[in-house]
Amino acid sequence: MSGPNVVARRGFLRTGAVFGGMAVLGATARGQAAKSFKVGLIGCGGRGRGAISDIMNAAKSLNVEIKVVALADAMADRVAAAREGVKARGQDVPEAACFAGFDAFKKLLGTDVEIVLMCTSPNFRPAHFEAAVKAGKHVFVEKPVAVDGPGVRRFLAAGELAAKKGLGVLAGTCLRHDKGYGGFHQLVADGAIGRPLGGAIYYCIGRLGLQKRDKAWSDAEYMVRNWYNFAEMSGDHIVEQDVHTIDMLNWCMGAPPVAAIAIGARHRRQTGNQYDCFGVDFEFPNQVHVHNLCRQINGCEFNWGNGVHLVGEKGWARIGAGVTLWDGTKVKPPDAPMTMNMYVQEHCVLIKSLLDEKPVNHAKDVAESTLSAIMGRDAAYTGRRVEWKAYMDPAAKSDLYDRAFASTSEDFEAGKVVAPEDDKAPVPGKA
Questions:
Q1: What is the DSSP string of 90-110?
Q2: CA separation (Å) from 186 to 16, 192, 311?
Q3: Looking at domain 9-175+342-361, what is its CATH homologous superfamily?
Q4: 192-336+369-413 maps to which CATH number?
Q5: Residue 56 CA to chain centroid, in angstroms?
Q6: What phi and psi, each to the nearest 5 degrees, are found at residue 261?
Q7: How many CB atoms lie within 10 A of CB 93?
Q8: In what order do the strands lie in the sheet with 64-73?
Q9: Burial 261-270 (b: 16+ CB within 10 A, else e)
Q10: How many C-beta neighbours within 10 Å does residue 133 have?
Q11: What 3-state DSSP class applies to 368?
């Protein structure tokens, strides 16, 4: 298999190692003395509390003890909820190590935590990740890792520093740790369909929720509590949710797209400023195009909720269906050695890499998938064909290079956040 659009076998072995070693997890763990890691959580909402459960379950399978020693969130009630969740699992976090406020992450990073779980809304992640790396912490960071180009570049720089410091960085792009998607990727990487020539990916679900504003809330609190409806906080749902399938596409293609052109619309959403749907044409080298469809509208077709369908020189492949060659021959995906659900499996990968003193670093992969999604979003918002180099090459002299949302961690800490007008979305050609 050849060509710049596809993963070479050598490249697959390198990137696929995130799950390839899982077949021997049990034996490796039994051969090691029990070890413990001190864990801190930044972002104590539902995903953060779930991440604590996931890393504890992963550690148990590896004969490793996890001690949750610090909690941080902008909202005190979420810290309290996370603390109660930890208590239910037989541990307690001292009140002195429970931090609330927009600078709470700094206080947590000043403790002796070894692994930090980052589960805030995406706009906070570049600054929080950078601070964690400078503090010498291993990191599990949820996807996506930014909401704009400057945030992605900041995250990438911190990821490079993490590699130099020998720190582990695991991203919450969980489909890479799913048995079905792992087998699908290996089929493509092994050349079962030949060089990919095109395809489609999709992420069609209902809307995630709605948080109506309490009159007592400041603009900052409203945006934090309703973050999944503001592009400033989430990047829009193409970035916050569809990044999963975009990440799988990039993994299978071996590189991110070079350009995107897109459409999008807001039909039924309430609050915030996001679109309900996107249709993106991602362009890869050699005129390979893959269509991306994502939607968050209740009451619509969800049977094909999320997935990847690629067409190649030899046949086609679709997640859940394996490969069908042009002569009708069926090729089943290999049995990817993943023994647990993907949310637990990903934490196994991080912990095992630390036990083996070979820390993983997925910063570049998740940053590139995040930027791919941002490129698709901006193409829809503006009505323009948007190129990758617009964000990554200052010589391109694009207005997108420095375009950033005023919603960074520093903005919130300084009290400079003003909530955008509700129910007003970008208009292509005018955005």
A1: T----GGGEEESTTHHHHHHT
A2: 8, 9, 15
A3: NAD(P)-binding Rossmann-like Domain (3.40.50.720)
A4: 3.30.360.10
A5: 20
A6: -135, 145
A7: 19
A8: 98-100, 64-73, 35-42, 115-118, 138-141, 169-171
A9: bbebebeebe
A10: 26
A11: helix
9-175+342-361 and 192-336+369-413: identical CATH topology: no
Domain residue limits, the chain: 9-175+342-361, 192-336+369-413
> What 3-state class would DSSP assign to 392?
helix
Contact criterion met (CB below 8 Å) for 177 and 279: no
Walk along the chain (431 residues) and give the pLDDT tens digit of each residue.
Answer: 333 333 332 233 333 443 433 433 433 444 454 499 999 999 999 999 999 999 999 999 999 999 999 999 999 999 999 999 999 999 999 999 999 999 999 999 999 999 999 999 999 999 999 999 999 999 999 999 999 999 999 999 999 999 999 999 999 999 999 999 999 999 999 999 999 999 999 999 999 888 999 999 999 999 999 999 999 999 999 999 999 999 999 999 999 999 999 999 999 999 999 999 999 999 999 999 999 999 999 999 876 667 999 999 999 999 988 999 999 999 988 887 777 899 999 999 999 999 999 999 999 999 999 999 999 999 999 999 999 999 999 999 999 999 999 999 999 999 999 999 999 999 999 87
**Rounded to an integer, what is the distance from CA 258 to the centroid of its chain?**
20
Q: Identify whether the C-beta of residue 313 lies closer than 8 Å to the C-beta of residue 324.
A: no
Longest dimension (CA), the chain: 66
With tokens 């190649």, the residue in question is 312
CA 166 to chain centre: 21
Q: Give the position of tokens 């670093």.
A: 361
Place of tokens 């005190």: 76
Q: Is the pTM of this model over 0.85?
A: yes
Buried-exposed string 216-238: b where 16+ CB fall within 10 A, e elsewhere: eeeebbbbbbbbbbbbbbbbbbb
